[in-house]
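dumping these here so i dont lose them again. two proteins, back to back, each one seq then structure tokens. dont judge the mess
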Amino acid sequence: MKQLLPLVLAGLFVGPVSAADEPAPSDPFALTGTDVSDLSQFVWEKRPIIVFADSPNDPNFGQQMEYLEDLSEELAKRDVIVLTDTDPSVQSELRTQLRPRGFMLVLIGKDGGVKLRKPFPWDVRELSRTIDKMPLRQREIRDRRAAPASN
């Protein structure tokens, strides 16, 4: 299973995205870290979760991706996009900005700020709770509840 995970993940990713050319994708599993040169393309639109590892074979990376894939619909409801970076030799912009050491999970808020850093895998339920406590997410929930009443 662990040998197949990188192949399955590769099938989920699309080509490079330019902030000027395309909007951020709605599929939570859309980009690799090397495809993103600037996180500002997601500000006020998406909540990036960035998963770093020194290799796609890192057991923590595999476990984290399984967690994220199993409940991807919960992430999509929260406007999450998952970015991965498993090649430290490339020195992507994300690695330069966030400076991971080995495995690291980073949650970025819609405002562009780092909201969470974890050196070990976190399940989607805990990530969802963290996101749901954010003031902007609270407002999104209130607005969604009020929208049907005003129609």
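---- next one ----
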Amino acid sequence: MKKKGSISDFTALRNRELLASFRDVLATSRGVPLRDMFGLAVKRPASRFWVSEYRAAEVICAMLRGETIDNQLPQRKAMYDEIYRRVVEWRRENPGRPVSDAVTAVVNSAAPEFYLTEKSAKVIIYSLRRKNKTGDNDE
């Protein structure tokens, strides 16, 4: 389980990609209220699934054993359901290969969305914009 406040190796990349998605929504969605643009930004495709291969392997292996993952937020559950679906398909096309290979391939493939809440996106985007204004881009 992820520890509160832990930061993944790819968090800065995810945040930059989310900000770019938001800026694209701003540029192309005339007449849409700002509060709705965060939701539009997170529903756009992402370059990968924003979860570590290790954590995804833990959850997918549990799902393959028949364990449920009902204790997760809806967006996170939807992400793991999509990863699971793709892992099952990948294994069907690549019999005999380990689950870890399937998870690695899937997690590093394009994702249909960011799997974040609108509120999370808003917090991330405003934080990045604040850092950009102050010149504090350490992330």
